[in-house]
Amino acid sequence: MRIARFTTGEDPLYGVVTxxxxxxxxxxxxxxxxxxxxxxxxxxxKLLDQQFRLPDARLLAPVLPRSKVVGIGRNYAAHAAxxxxxxxxxxxxxxxxxxxxxxxxxxxxxxxxxxxxxxxGELAVVIGRICRDVPAEKATDVIHGYTIANxxxxxxxxRRDGHFTRAKGFDSFCPLGPWIExxxxxxxxxxGVRVQxxxxxxxxxxxxxxxxxxxxxxxxxxxxxxxxxxxxxxxxTGTPEGVGPMEVGDEVEVSIDGLGTLTNKVATR
Length: 269
Description:
The chain is mostly beta strands. The chain folds into two domains: 2-60, no CATH class; 69-268, Alpha-Beta Complex (Fumarylacetoacetate hydrolase, domain 2). The protein has helices at residues 40-43, 77-82, 155-161, 165-169, 216-226, and strands spanning 2-7, 13-17, 32-36, 47-53, 58-60, 69-73, 92-96, 101-102, 108-110, 117-119, 121-127, 143-150, 153-154, 174-181, 194-199, 202-208, 234-236, 244-245, 251-256, 260-268. The strands form three sheets. Strands 1, 2, 3, 4, 5, 6, 7, 8, 11, 12, 14 and 17 form a twelve-stranded mixed beta sheet that branches. The chain has a five-stranded mixed beta sheet with strand order 9-20-19-15-16, with no helix packed on it. The longest helix has 11 residues, at 216-226. The chain is globular and about 55 Å long. The N and C termini lie far apart (35 Å). It comes from Nocardioides cremeus.
C-alpha cells in the first residue's frame, strides 16, 4: 500500500495511491489517490468516499516526524572508503531535526554558510509505533513502511565542525517521498533493492541495500537500544558510493526499486 500526504490547494490530507509505477518510478496517468480519514499512524487506514487524480494533487512529505530523523553514517563500505573513512564496527548514528524535512518537488536551499553541498540518496525506514529495545528479529513489527530520502550534507561544514549536526541539519536538508510503501520488505530480496541517484539526468549513485554493512533489523535494534522511537520517526539507512556536489539549479532524483522516485531542485535561499 502506498500512503501519501497531499494537498489539492486546501489542508493536507492522507491518502492511498493506486495505479502502476513505470520503470522510471513514475505513476501511471490514471493513478488516483483515495483520501483517508486521518494520519494512518494514529487512526489506521480508513478510506473516505473521496478521490483525486494524482496529477491534480501536490504530494507532500509523506510523514512529519514527531520527534526525530536518525541518520546512519558510513553504512556502505564503498562510501566509507570514498570519504577516506574506516567502516564502523557498530552503526554510526546522528540526528537531523524534523524541521529539515521537505517533500517531493520542494526546493533544497543552498545555505550561504557552505560552498560544498552534497546529495546522498538513501532508503528510509518509517517507524510505526512507540518502541524501545527492539530485538533485531522483531524489527519488522515496529516498521510502518519505507520511503526515499536525500540526506543533504554540507560537506565542508562536516569536515570543519568534526560532527554532523550543522552539516546535515539545515531546513530542507531531508527531502522525503514520494509516499510510504507499507508492503515492501527489502530484507526479502536476496540482492536487496536498487538505490540510484541522478544529477540532472545522469546516474551518479547506483547501489543496492544488499551492500549495507548493517542491515535494517540491526539498525532498528541499535537505534532503539539508545533512544525511544516514536510513530513517524525516520531512520535513514546510509548512502551508496558516488556522493558529490550539487549546485543551484541542479535537479536531483533518487529512485529506489518498488518505491518510485523522489525529485528535488537546488535553489538559492
